[in-house]
Amino acid sequence: MSAGEQPVAIERRGAVLVIAINRPERRNAVDAAVSCAIAGALDDLDADPALRVAVITGRGGSFCSGMDLKAFLEGDRPELPGRGFAGVTESPPAKPLIAAVEGFALAGGCELALACDLIVAAEDAVFGLPEVARGLVAGSGGLVRLPRRIPQAIALEYVLTGARMTAPVAHHWGLVNRLASSGGALEAALALAEEIAANAPLSVMMSKRIVREAPGWPENEIWDRQRPLAEAVIGSEDAREGARAFAEKRIPEWAGR
After folding, report:
1. Which of 111, 129, 115 is nearest to 54 (CA)?
2. What's the rounded Cα separation, in Å, for the pair 230 and 243?
3. Which end of the chain is more exposed for a tag (fewer CB within 10 A), N or C?
4. Which residues have a Cβ under 8 Å from the Cβ of 236 and sit 6 or more positions away?
5. pLDDT in tens, 98-149
């Protein structure tokens, strides 16, 4: 990164916000400045009704190698209070977040990808939680989220050995949603983001919320908990617009309310 460049590059592409870690000389390792920038971008995502989806990626052929160990030794911590590592692992946004992974997504970088709702990866990308080989623990969500995304025994094997998982294997187990050619992860993620952004924003956000929260609901409370959330969307202007557009055979014009 040359003088004057920001550690995180933010770009709007229509309704999609692209957040790119811009420290290729450090394999996009995360320090406090990166975490603050990502947190700020995600706050903008949720606050701006014109933005529907975010894609997080890394520049220079690598997604993220985890915590910046050099900065850590100098007293810099990449965890933000209430937000966690990279400003997202403990407090993901309400709107959908997609990881576009090239190269390495290791340690905290893997945990950053796991904090995203969907993952698009280049065929030669690599994931891993090598903390056990360094006398550490993947405490920024890796040990919690990986066994929720893939079979627990498979997750445990990778966690306990610290082995790397290739993108095709990750796709096989359902960790990766879509594979792309090398260098094509961002464009493939943007295509997925545009598919999502075409839908009603309230419906998308509430659907994400229910999918994320429902596994923790007691079985006898599922319908009572879901009903008010669904009704809040069904009673919206967009619900009526969706019905009208369907009847009139046209593309709906979403108002986000």
Report:
1. 115
2. 16
3. C
4. 202, 257
5. 999 999 999 999 999 999 999 999 999 999 999 999 999 999 999 999 999 9
> Which residues are identified as catalytic?
111, 131
Per DSSP, the chain holds a count of helices (H) and strands (E) of: 10, 11
3-state per-residue secondary structure call for 220-256: HHHHHHHHHHHHHHHCCHHHHHHHHHHHCCCCCCCCC
Residue 191 makes CB contacts below 8 A (sequence gap 6+) with none
Closest of 222, 219, 218, 257 to residue 240, by C-alpha: 257
Q: Would you mind telling me the total number of residues written for the chain in this entry?
A: 257
18's CB contacts (< 8 A; 6+ apart) are 9, 10, 11, 12, 54, 55, 57, 186, 190
- Percent of the chain residues past pLDDT 90, beyond the cut: 92
Terminal-residue alpha carbon distance, the chain: 41
Cα angle 161, 140, 119 (rounded to 5 degrees) comes to 80
Domain ranges in the chain? 8-197, 201-247
Percentage of the chain beyond pLDDT 70 is 98
Give the class (CATH, top level) of 8-197. alpha beta
Backbone angles phi, psi at 46, to 5 degrees: -70, -25
Taking the C-alpha atoms of residue 231 and residue 203, their distance in angstroms, rounded to an integer, is: 11
Asked, colleague to colleague, whether 8-197 and 201-247 share their fold, the answer is: no
Name, in order, each residue with C-beta under 8 angstroms of 64's C-beta and a sequence gap of 6 or more.
Answer: 21, 27, 28, 29, 30, 58, 86, 104, 105, 106, 108, 109, 112, 113
- DSSP-derived 3-state class of residue 214: helix
| CATH class of the domain whose range is 201-247 | mainly alpha
Burial class (CB in 10 A: 0-12, 13-18, 19+), 254: buried
